[in-house]
Amino acid sequence: MDIKPSIRSNIFMNAHPLGCKKYIEEQVNQIKTFQPFKGPKNVLIIGGSSGYGLGSRIALAFMANANTINVSFETAPRQNRTGTAGWWNNIYFQQYAKETGNIHKDFVGDAFSTEMKQNVADYIQKTVGSVDLVIYSLAAGARKDEATGNIIKSHIKTIGLPAEGKTIDIADLSIKDLTIQPATELETEETVFVMGGSDWRHWVEYLDQRGVLSPGVKTISYTYIGGTITDTIYRGGTLGKAKEDLENQAKTMNQHLSQKYNGEALISSSKAVVTKASVFIPKMPIYVSCLFEVMTKYGVHESILEHKYRLYKDMVYGNKRITDHLKRIRLDHLEMDEKIQKETAELMQTHSDESLFELSGTQKFLKDFHQIHGFQFEGIDYEADVDMESLSLLQPE
Description:
Helices cover 40% and strands 16% of the residues. The protein is α/β, with parallel strands linked by helices. It has a single domain (7-391), classed as NAD(P)-binding Rossmann-like Domain (Rossmann fold), CATH 3.40.50.720. Helix 2 (51-63) links the parallel strand 3 and strand 4. The chain is globular. The protein starts with 6 loop residues before the first strand and ends in a 6-residue tail after the last helix.
């Protein structure tokens, strides 16, 4: 099969399997240059096939010597479809993680469903007995309401007034205006249902009921706070309401886990990175591109892997935890530095649409966006035919 990037309305419709292998390989090689640390032994990651979930899995598997169990919703290759990047990430993580000698298991399916929770709990009981870390890093655009059978979709919208900004058209490499309309009350509620913290709480409650949480268990989910540049669109919109719910659920869980297990429920605010949804949030691609430029200039830019390694080594299991008045871990403190924010805002103002593409930060944004789908890696012949028939025989373990 000839696999070239297929992009429709800023959505990648395909992934390159060999590029995904390279994506995993580079992260594994990078993590091996870091220092091991004492962390969790048995880790459950809900949403561990890409992004921060995958970075967390690699960091903990290789540097904390942890067993890992991942739950993610992926599509396998079939006919003329390549399968999702997460499908291949799971497969190649398994291949490289064999050298750890530990247990690494993938469950592919609907993490929101009761059936999946049952299957995962059964597996934990039969293999590792219990887990001492539960990471909730799920990024989904829709969720089935098991009570009604309806599919509920999330909405990236503002609250109150429309918001205008610019985004990057990945396909034709141009800057385009993007306007987001205010959400209705129902749309806000639906976004909270899909992207808030209720499913995270359901996972922890179910694992608690099944007796598969270890003494001292920790659970953590990732949020994004950001600054004034993105506040109206992100934190002040429907996404922000979902994040508020996530943080409120953590408070409730923390009380229970601390009393019953001497454990804790944590929220960690991550730095801005390139995600599949970045291009659908006005200003966000421009902000992230300029942020990358400034943070690189000052030597504080981190890859997703570096970011999550520092989280677990220094702040979750180390003694360098940085928190705010709401007790959220502020792993984003480098991004939120006043100097970084000021220069990022200035850069956004001074560059025209055309000159923005000259920034190394924008080039990195575009490269990262392609690489999370397996494209633009050195050492891969993207003109060569890919033997999908042989690759399709590979399955998550």
